Amino acid sequence: MKIIIAGAGAVGTHLAKLLSGEKQDIILMDEDERKLDASGGNLDLMTVNASPTSISGLKEADAAGADLFIGVMPDESRNMTACMLAASMGAKKTVARIDNYEYLLPKHKEFFAKLGVHSLIYPEMLAARDIVDAVKMSWIRQWWEFAGGALVLIGTRMGEAAEILNVPLHELGGRNIPFHIVAVKRGADTIIPRGDDMIKLNDIVYFTTTKKYIPYIRKIAGKENEADVRNVMIMGGSRIAVRTCQYLPDYMRTKIIESDLNRCNRLTELVDDGVMVINGDGRDIGLLQEEGIRNTEAFVALTGNSETNILACLAAKRLGVVKTVAEVENVDYIGMAESLDIGTVINKKFIAASHIYQMMLDADVSNVKCLTVANADVAEFTVKAGSRITKAPVKDLGLPKGATIGGLIRNGEGVLVTGNTMIRENDHVVVFCLGMMIKKLEKYF
């Protein structure tokens, strides 16, 4: 598959790293030679030093032969223009990173497709949805729903009160337990557990289950005494903050702390009247206490500075906040943020990469999620007639090492999978896998 990535900034470079590991034919374009030198030196890809909005530059990159053209430059209009030009030259599919929510409205989809922009990615909106999923329940690190919530994935850290510590998994209740442990993050390692493995203190454990058993998961994880989220404080009035306020449930009371007075005035026009906008420094402990941090269950740090967000979450935890979320755009800091136990880490690059990665899969994949801190992915496949995965029980499928089936959705109902489960045509199968190995699983579906 020939893929052209237009823009060697943070998102484009990260995407190039992910895709180059898949042995795809990758071309990275940018008019800034220094960016190309910094990003392309250690990757198996070709670089083109030319403007992605230049016809001659696109010809040099052979846009006419591209299976996928991805515009991820900082400027939305340039991404749209580059995609239109590439499509007119013959690129089969184009994706543009945008900053304007209006473009995503269903009534505009056909209009953009006719222009040659086939898909749109708005990372800030995707990040906001992940933040809202993370703060809905204070005791959960990650929460994702599949097939409208028929099956859910929950990631939560094991404290001393957890009931499942130091017990071999095969002793946890036999085949009738209402959950499946798909992965365990232990220190810097992510483990796909086997029956003899045990859960240790401070592990982040990823469960798949159905919604009715979430209270049971909460009980065995020792989280029943953690307060539910009713009050949310957001530091930084970014576009992600605005979208987060729009997606938060009505029962949550929200405050945004923003240091720039002009931005505060703008925020009052962008968010609902129920959201309180405060002009001040979110790192000021006195201000946080004055604004009721001790009665706040969730603190979300969304400034443009990763270090500030990490430190602010640490301060909020010290002041008693149960749930903290930090936007960490510097990839090098993600491991540190996790080791400091700051809570949920959000990274727009990983989120955007998951959605774009989904577009290059041949199988029918309706959902791909990147677990930022676990170097792992979760994908929802729809099973085709006669596919390999329907030919034998799960235990005999010979799935690649590092992959496990977390569950499936059949006729709208969530079903937990055992080794004897037979997968059928039209089932929606949720697969958890380490690294970017989804492509290797396509042949099964």
UniProtKB/TrEMBL annotation:
It comes from the Bacteria. GO terms for molecular function: potassium ion transmembrane transporter activity. Residues 141-223, 366-445 form the RCK C-terminal domain. Residues 1-121, 229-346 form the RCK N-terminal domain. Keywords: Ion transport, NAD, Potassium, Potassium transport, Transport. PROSITE patterns: RCK_C, RCK_N. One of its GO terms (cellular component) is plasma membrane. The keyword Ion transport applies. PANTHER family: POTASSIUM CHANNEL PROTEIN 2-RELATED-RELATED, TRK SYSTEM POTASSIUM UPTAKE PROTEIN TRKA. This is Trk system potassium uptake protein TrkA.
